[in-house]
Amino acid sequence: MANKANAEIGVIGGSGFYSFLDDVTEVEVDTPYGPPSDSLFLGKVAGRRVAFLPRHGRGHHLPPHRINYRANLWALRSLGVRQVLGPCAVGGLRPEYGPGTLLVPDQFVDRTLTRSSTYFDGLPLPDGTVPRVVHVSLADPYCPTGRAAVLRAARERDWEPVDGGTLVVVEGPRFGTRAESRWHRAQGWSVVGMTGHPEAALARELELCYTSLTLVTDLDAGAESGEAVSQGEVMRVFAANVDRLRGVLFETLAGLPATGERDCDCGAALGGMDPGITLP
């Protein structure tokens, strides 16, 4: 690690969330799992020290299946982060969840195929340390305190959020077929995205609080008749709402508890089990 810079809250998202801040410090972090998506950018928001990490890297050059999720979460924790907010763009699976909807999920379904989704795989690290196989509960994958803070912040910003729902995470980078979209909707799932897993699972293994904020940018193919999803439309809608989403994020940062005052169970996810590796 380049220096001893630190933060208490992490935000995994694009440069639109930090590029306008004054006095931003760029920090490069090494991890046993390789490099994270980019440098981490440290700044202060509402008196809180925050580390921003571009999920896809600067210039959006990393597709969802090539993001080094393990390195990203490890890097954040190594800087002192214990609470993480993960905003992402999603497709709506119901007509009422149209573009511009803010949905704060309470569940996810994993339909990815190729991603490393655990630190506890029993494979040796470069230093020779071998993690134990540890089974962590993910019955409720998102931090209840973080979810409550996001919902409260959105309402204070006059953006009525959808409280709860299931995010189905697909491999990408392609968008789904109409048949896949109809199937997802038939299962009762709410929105579909490409990056929500394994972020939440890895955060839990590191005993981090993790909260997802999903911004609906389109009605997924098959959610209703009409035009298929396009990358251009997704980016256009996200850009049109980024200031609004940033405002909710920053309001949330101010409302999160101090690191030593977390009242959820996220910080005890390992239940005293020895993972065989030293968490940063």
Q: H/E series, N to C? A: EEEEHEEEHEEHEHEH
- Name the helicity range: 10-25%
The major β-sheet equals: 11 strands, mixed
- What is the tally of beta strands? 11
Mean pLDDT: 92
What class would the helix/strand composition place it in?
alpha/beta
Number of distinct helices: 5
What key attributes describe this structure?
280 residues; alpha/beta
Helices, strands, pairings?
Blueprint: E1 9-13, E2 25-27, E3 40-45, E4 48-54, H1 69-78, E5 83-92, E6 102-104, E7 107-111, H2 144-156, E8 162-163, E9 166-170, H3 178-186, E10 191-193, H4 199-205, E11 209-219, H5 231-255
Parallel strand pairs: 1-4, 1-5, 5-11, 6-8, 7-9, 9-10
Antiparallel strand pairs: 2-3, 3-4, 5-10, 6-11
Helix pairs in contact: 2-5
Description of the molecule:
This protein is of the alpha/beta class and 280 residues long. Helices cover 23% and strands 21% of the residues. The chain has 5 helices and 11 strands; from the N terminus they run ββββαβββαββαβαβα. It has helices at residues 69-78, 144-156, 178-186, 199-205, 231-255; strands spanning 9-13, 25-27, 40-45, 48-54, 83-92, 102-104, 107-111, 162-163, 166-170, 191-193, 209-219. Strands 1, 2, 3, 4, 5, 6, 7, 8, 9, 10 and 11 form an 11-stranded mixed β-sheet that branches. Strand 3 and strand 4 form a beta hairpin. The relative contact order is 0.21. The model has no long low-confidence stretch (mean pLDDT 92).
